[in-house]
Inverse folding.
C-alpha cells in the first residue's frame, strides 16, 4: 500500500489546500496521514496570542490548541484518512510575533524554529516512511509556513514531494505573496481534478475546523464560496518522481 504524509503547518492547512487529493488517495487505497507541526498548547496566553483566540470567540480559559486538535481528528475522519499526528511546536504568536502583519513579514532573526523542526520532521518521515510528501509552497507568506518549508528543504528526503498552493491565500488576493517562488517555480506543475466524492469530502473536512471558519470565511457558506473559486482543482509543484500514478493528477 503506498503511503502519503501531509506536512501541515497549522491545524487546517492540509485539508484546505490539498484535502481533495488526500481524500482521493485514501479512496484509491493509499495510507494517508496528516501531520500538523504547530499544535502545542500554551497555558495562559497573553497579548497577541490571546487575541488570536479571543477573535475566534473563545474565552481565555479555553485550551485553544486542544480544541483545534480535536477538530483535526474530525477533519481526518471526514477526509477518510488515518488519524492525524500532532507535533508540539508553538505557533508564531507564541514565538515573538506580535501582530497580524508580523505573521506575514520576513521571519524574525531570533526565530530558530526551523532548526528545531528539522530533526522532528526527519524522525516523523523516518517513522512514516512515505512514498509521497505533501507540503506548502508558503503562498501568502505566513512565517510558520515559510519555516516549515525551510525545515523540510534542509533534509535529504527520499520521497517525492507535491508542494501545495496555500488556500485560502490563493483566492484572498489577486496576486498573493509567494516568498519561496524562486525555490519552487522551476519545478514541474501538476493539476488534480477532484471528482464529486473528493470535493464533498474536502468540503466536510474543511468545515470540521469550526473555530476557524467564521474568522477565515465569515460562515460555512463563505467557505463554500471560496472553495468554489478553486473550481474543483488543486495545483501543485512536484519534486522527484511519483512512486505510483495518481488518478486525476496530470501535468498542468
Ligand atoms: Zn497556516
Amino acid at each position: 500500500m503506498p503511503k502519503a504524509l501531509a506536512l501541515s503547518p497549522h491545524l487546517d492547512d492540509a485539508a484546505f489546500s490539498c484535502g481533495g487529493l488526500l481524500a482521493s488517495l485514501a479512496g484509491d487505497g493509499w495510507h494517508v496521514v496528516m501531520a500538523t507541526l504547530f499544535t502545542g498548547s500554551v497555558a495562559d496566553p497573553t497579548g497577541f496570542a490571546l487575541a488570536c483566540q479571543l477573535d475566534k470567540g473563545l474565552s481565555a480559559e479555553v485550551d485553544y490548541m486542544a480544541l483545534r486538535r480535536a477538530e483535526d481528528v474530525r477533519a481526518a475522519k471526514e477526509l477518510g484518512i488515518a488519524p492525524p499526528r500532532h507535533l508540539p511546536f508553538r505557533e508564531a504568536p507564541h514565538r515573538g510575533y506580535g501582530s497580524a502583519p508580523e505573521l506575514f513579514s520576513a521571519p524574525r532573526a531570533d526565530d530558530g524554529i526551523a532548526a528545531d523542526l528539522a530533526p522532528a520532521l526527519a524522525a516523523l518521515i523516518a517513522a512514516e516512511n512515505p512514498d509521497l510528501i505533501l507540503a506548502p509552497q508558503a503562498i501568502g507568506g505566513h512565517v510558520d509556513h515559510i519555516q516549515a518549508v525551510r525545515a523540510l528543504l534542509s533534509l535529504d528526503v527520499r520521497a517525492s514531494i507535491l508542494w501545495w498552493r496555500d488556500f485560502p491565500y490563493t483566492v484572498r488576493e489577486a496576486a498573493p505573496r509567494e516568498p519561496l517562488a524562486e525555490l519552487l517555480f522551476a519545478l514541474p506543475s501538476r493539476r488534480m481534478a477532484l471528482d464529486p466524492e473528493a470535493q464533498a469530502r474536502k468540503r466536510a473536512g474543511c468545515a470540521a475546523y469550526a473555530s476557524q471558519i467564521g474568522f477565515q470565511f465569515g460562515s460555512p457558506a463563505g467557505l463554500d464560496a471560496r472553495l468554489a473559486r478553486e473550481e474543483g482543482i488543486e495545483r501543485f509543484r512536484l519534486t522527484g518522481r511519483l512512486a505510483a500514478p495518481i488518478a486525476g493528477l496530470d501535468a498542468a
Observations:
- The mean pLDDT is 95.
- Residues 9-10, 13, 142, 145 surround zinc ion (CB under 6 Å).
- The radius of gyration is 17 Å.
